[in-house]
Every structure is written in C-alpha cells, then in structure tokens.
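I'd like us to work through together how a protein chain folds, taking it slowly. To get us started, please write out a protein record for me. Go ahead whenever you are ready, and we will take it from there:
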Amino acid sequence: MAPPISTIIVNYNAGPGLVACIRSVIDQVSDVVLVDNASRDNSIALVEAQFAGDARVRIIRNTANLGFAAACNIGARAAQHPYWFFLNPDCICGNNSVAELFEELTRNPKAGMVGGLLLNPDGSEQAGGRRLTPTPSRTLVRAFGLQALAKRWPSLLVDFNLHQQPLPDSPITVEAISGACMLVKPEAIAQVGLWDVGYFLHCEDLDWCMRFIRAGWDILFVPSAPITHDQGTCSKSRPLFVEWHKHKGMSRFYLKFFHTAPALPLLALVLVAIWARFALIALRSLIRRR
C-alpha cells in the first residue's frame, strides 16, 4: 500500500529525463501531479506515451510559464493526498528514498519538512541539500571566498552550504533544504501556507524553509534517502533568463527577511554584490554571443 503522498513535479522542457523521474517515484507514492509550464519540447508527449492509462499520473498544462512557485501551488491544490512531495523533473529517487523520508517526517511530531541526500550524477554530494540560512553575513563570506578561513574562525566565517562536512549517520535538523526534493507535512502547510508566488525561479525554497522555522517547525535532512539530481536540465535553454530570475529571487529573499535596522548595512552590501554579479554574467554572455 503506497503512503498517502502526492508527488508534485513542475516541468519546463525537461526532455526524456522527465519520464525517468516519474518512473523512479511512481511506485513509492500514491499519485503524481505533473504541472507543465508551457514546455516547447516533447517531454509531455513522452510522458503521455509512457504512462498512457495510468491513473496515478495526472498532467496539468499551463498556457504560459508561470514560474516554479506558482506551478507548485497549482499542483498542491490539485493533490489528492495529504502529504506533498515536491520533486524536480531532473531528479531520480532511490528505490526506498520516499519511504525513508516519510518515516522520518511522520515519526517526528516537530518535523514539518524533510529532504534527502542530493547527489550529482557522479555520485558526489550536491550543494544545497543541507544548508544554513544564507544570512547577509554568511552570503558575504561565501561571495568573497572567506569560508576557506573557517577552520581558524569557525564561528565567524561560516559557509551556509554544509555538503563538505562529514555526512551524518542519521537524520539531523538543518535550517534549509533544497526545493528539488521536499516532503512536507499537511499540518505544517496549514499553518505556514503555500509557496510565495512573488518568486519566479530560485530562492522560493529558502523562503519556505525560513517560514517553516519561524512557525516553529523543524526541517530534517535524511542521509539514507538518496536522490540523484542532474541540476540545471530545465534551465540550459535560457541561461541568462534563469540568471536574471535567480538574482531577482535572491534580492527578494534578503529584502523580505533581513530588512531590520541592524542588518541594513550588510543587506546593502549583499544587494550590490548580487546585481554586480548579474551584470558580470550578462556582460560575459554578450561577449560570447558576439
């Protein structure tokens, strides 16, 4: 008997990998809600061919690209089961990964959200699967490469990505996980609410994690639940478009959560760094095209 989980996958030109993603999860959950953001490739046609007649797979077609957060909310409202598993279309779940996540989420009353061990295609741990909140000070540490000095000043120079730390033997509480793989509890969602649609792409997962923590819920990282993530599959066709929304999302996140008076000087530095970085990326892209 499959657990009462609806998997919500937002697709945008994910290609044949989307079929592999659904295959990896379909027998571990009760159903899959696939929300397509007006893809122009054949990914939806491939899914229709592979899962024809399978009532567990439902497809919602948006007429425009509404962004990740808005599409997640559309999928959530269409879900038929109380637990929601948000999964990127470029992910492959391990054979027992969802069961591991579900067990940890349901046996821990304080847990509102759990995420698994995100792996690169080469088997190495991917950044972002377990992390601290990227506060303005932590972001500046990373932006200037100061995390290399963390051994000397560990409490001061903290890198918010934790994937280079030893892998824990059992689930641990973290401040944030990746939106590529999130299993969430219905009671937590009832309190916290859905994704913030003010984000189009990137940082909406950090926003949700911050809101879960502020509402008193724990976020767990489960190392026994591997998920291979071929990061960036859906964004390869429009890299500068993705970078624009990524930097816009970062700005929204910092302005939303760190606008208090004591943090304003650091916040200003972070915002300047964000848009200076985007300007360099855009200039490099322009030079390459010419």
User: Anything to note?
Assistant: The mean pLDDT is 92. Residues 118 and 271 are 29 Å apart (CA to CA). Strands lie at 5-11, 31-37, 57-62, 83-87, 91-93, 111-119, 172-174, 181-184, 218-229. The longest strand covers residues 218-229.
